[in-house]
Design brief:
- The complex is a heterodimer.
- By secondary structure, chain A is mainly alpha-helical.
- Chain A has a domain at 63-101.
- Chain A is built from four helices and two strands.
- In chain A, strands 1-2 form a two-stranded antiparallel ribbon.
- Chain B is mainly α.
- Chain B has twelve helices and no strands.
- In chain B, helix 1 runs parallel beside helix 8 (121-153).
- The longest helix of chain B is centred in the middle third of the chain and has 33 residues, at 121-153.
- Chain B is globular and about 50 Å long.
- Classes of the chains: A mainly alpha, B mainly alpha.
- The interface between A and B is large, with 74 and 97 residues.
Chain lengths: 101, 222
């Protein structure tokens, strides 16, 4: 039940945001500060997600197989590998570390 | 000018397919976080903005509640309002077409459309609809594929899925780290989130990190 609330709530909020862009007067969002914060929001939230999902478990910091996968992902990104290669190489490395452990 | 129309078509299609592939990671991450295949597909069909979907299932996977998941996803989706603002005068739509256009207003459709500006207004409109519709089609097909795939493999960590999810986030983040200050802010946000994870209730660390964007943007650190 909670998961359906997440699915429908996320959909409703994201759809409302998109529609708002077509309805609200342009000058409302023209404020320089609003633009700056809005531009930084995905960077901050994605970075937080990367850190939390690769270095924590529940409310603890942990270093495990995932970190090996992330190291390979960073290497792939530096080498300008396409997205599927980044994700698959990280998954493969992490899975191998799990099996060898 | 048929050759230019072909270029718009080709660009829209290649973006649609490539971005659609992210749907595999999104579908798999969603199932690994505990959502059913039906819930996963509903999320892609109805939300249709990748980073927000990843965020919602990421918060759920980290043990967060519905409110934290929805708020995090909503904050990540605010940029779509700015895209709508840019597309509204270019598309000039009314009624159901405007509703559909809003639903398909995402990073890719907006950016492909605006990239057609030198070609002309018709190419802007074509680029928007082709890319929006194309990503919608492929995104949902690949979400289903990823969800079914993840369901059949069982333990997420045995297949590296628990590393694939943060790697996918990193892949979304990487192209945005274009300046020294954005890289600094990203590192700051990561450290803040790690600290917040140990101090705050489960699943709220990510939404709390939004304060980093507000502080950095407020000061004009750009």
């Amino acid at each position: 039940m909670t998961l359906w609330i997440v699915v429908l709530g996320t959909s409703a909020v994201c759809f409302a945001t998109k529609v708002a862009g077509y309805l609200i007067p342009a000058r409302w969002l023209h404020h320089e500060r609003v633009q700056r914060i809005n531009a930084l929001m995905p960077i901050v939230l994605l970075s937080a997600l990367v850190a939390v999902q690769s270095l924590t478990s529940k409310t603890h910091l942990v270093i495990d197989h995932r970190l090996g996968g992330m190291a390979v992902a960073i290497g792939a990104l530096i080498a300008r590998a396409p997205f599927p290669v980044v994700v698959l190489s990280a998954a493969l490395t992490s899975a191998l570390l799990v099996h060898w452990h | 000018m048929p050759s230019l129309a072909t270029a718009t078509f080709r660009q829209s299609l290649s973006v649609s397919f490539t971005v659609g592939l992210y749907g595999i990671a999104c579908g798999a991450a969603s199932v690994a976080a505990g959502l059913s295949v039906l819930q996963t597909c509903a999320l892609s069909l109805l939300t249709f903005t990748g980073a927000s979907q990843f965020a919602a299932v990421g918060v759920v996977g980290a043990g967060g509640g519905a409110a934290a998941a929805i708020a995090t996803a909503g904050l990540l989706g605010t940029r779509n309002a700015l895209y709508g603002l840019q597309m509204a005068p270019r598309l000039q739509l009314r009624g159901w077409r405007r509703i559909l256009a809003a639903h398909w207003t995402i990073d890719e459709s907006t950016n492909v459309a605006i990239a057609q500006e030198p070609v002309g207004p018709a190419a802007v409109t074509a680029g928007f609809w082709l890319t929006g519709g194309g990503v919608y089609l492929f995104w949902n097909i690949f979400t289903l594929a990823g969800a079914l795939g993840a369901k059949s493999i069982g333990s997420p960590s045995a297949w590296g899925l628990d590393a694939a999810v943060p790697a996918a986030f990193l892949g979304l983040l990487w192209p945005r780290l274009t300046t020294r200050s954005t890289r600094g802010i990203a590192v700051g946000a990561a450290l803040f989130a790690l600290g917040a994870t140990t101090a705050l209730p489960p699943g709220t660390a990510i939404i709390a990190s939004a304060v980093v964007a507000v502080l950095a943007g407020w000061r004009g650190n750009k």
